[in-house]
Amino acid sequence: MEKTKKGIIGFTTTIPVELVFAAGYEPCDLNNIFITDENPMHYIERAERDGFPKSMCNWVKGIYGVVMEKGVDAVITVMEGDCSNTQALAEIFRYRGVRTIPFAFPYDRDREVLAREIDKLRKELSVDEHMFVEVVNGMKKTRASLMTIDEMTWKEGLVTGAENHLWLVRASDMLGDYERYNTSAKAFIADARERKNIEGVRLGYIGVPPIFLDLYEFIGSLGGHVVYNETQRQFVLPYDTNDIVRRYLMYTYPYGVFARLEDMKEEIKRRRIEGVIHYVQAFCYRAIEEVILRETLGVPMITIEGDMPKQLDTRTKLRIEAFIEMLTGQRT
């Protein structure tokens, strides 16, 4: 495929990235740039210097800092189906002179509404239809490789929960080049095939990707094996369809807890999950969903809360350790 980079388009959560690639832009998930930086705190500090309150979500402040310091040509802001702060963030970007492109996932999963949103984005980016077909076919191969990595995590025990998290969470933008990402994924798969099986308490991780920097490594050190990363897996769009509207209707993350519950219950059963770690970001409305999740998932669950991009605090470590010890005890 001929590479023509018009510039970088950032986004605040997963969007129909096929359109960005097909339009000749380089997609960039701003969340990943923030959390994988050697010093993510400086993005938060930049936002606070510019007037963001200390009491608001640090993910939002991190995204703002990335846009201000890294320089992107435009930001696709998801106004419905993600963070409730996005509208205000989009207004700040516009005030700062950053081009913003609004996009929305309809809460009621209305196909006509989503089709209209996708078509608006297609026109805004001036997507070439022939290139779009080529991109869809190419990304299908990359997504197949990522689903192989996922299966190697829960079926074969050859991939750690941390590795699973990283490979799947980056599916949102595929590091700006889906063909190169597929090549890297295939190389990883070949290397992982030579490993010994991972044993441990089979855990599920649900909720948004964590702001903690060492969560998966700590779980592994206690004998836990995360075999299901709910939202990260959804970023792969693991659905066998060429219909872009259907693909993003099946994508569960934007449509509330009940859309996600069906997927979670199915995967908990299929992956033989013994317990679930539910992560919520401080000051996020999604914390309220714990009430429903705890009463409906059917397996033991612990909810942990994160705020800053840093190592796990002692209290959270003790709670996770006690949770895994309890699940281990239930095995005997």
Characterization of the model:
- It is a single chain.
- With 332 residues, the chain is of the alpha/beta class.
- The protein has a domain of 118 residues: Rossmann fold (3-Layer(aba) Sandwich).
- Helix content is 51%, strand content 14%.
- The protein contains 15 helices and 8 strands.
- The strands form 2 sheets. The chain has a 4-stranded parallel β-sheet with strand order 2-1-3-4. Strands 6-5-7-8 form a 4-stranded parallel β-sheet, sandwiched between helices.
- Strand 1, helix 1 and strand 2 form a beta-alpha-beta unit.
- It is globular, with a radius of gyration of 19 Å.
- The chain starts with 7 loop residues before the first strand and ends with a helix.
- The model has no long low-confidence stretch (mean pLDDT 93).
Describe what is shown at a glance:
This protein has 332 residues and is an alpha/beta fold. It is 51% helix and 14% strand. Strand 5 (201-207), helix 10 (215-221) and strand 6 (224-229) form a beta-alpha-beta unit.
For the structure shown, list the relevant keywords.
332 residues; alpha/beta; four-stranded parallel sheet; globular
Strand order of the largest sheet: 2-1-3-4
**CATH architectural designation of the domain at 8-125:** 3-Layer(aba) Sandwich
CATH class of the domain at 8-125: Alpha Beta
Give me the secondary-structure category. Answer: alpha/beta
Low-confidence stretches: none
Helix content, binned percent: 40-55%
Q: Tally the helices.
A: 15
Would you give the CATH topology of the domain at 8-125? Rossmann fold
Q: Largest sheet at a glance?
A: 4 strands, parallel
Secondary-structure element pattern, one letter each:
EHEHHHEHEHHHHEHEHHHEHEH
Gyration radius, in Å: 19 Å
For this entry, what is the oligomeric state of its chains?
single chain
DSSP, total strands = 8
Terminal CA distance: 55 Å
- Average pLDDT level: 93
